Amino acid sequence: MLPNSLSKQRAGVNRISEEVTTEEIQSLARELQILRNQIQTISSQSSEYAITVEALSKQDPERPVYRSLGNILLEVDDRESLESELNEAQEALNEHLARLVEREESIRKKYEEMAESFERA
Question: How many domains does the structure of the chain reveal?
Answer without folding.
Answer: 1
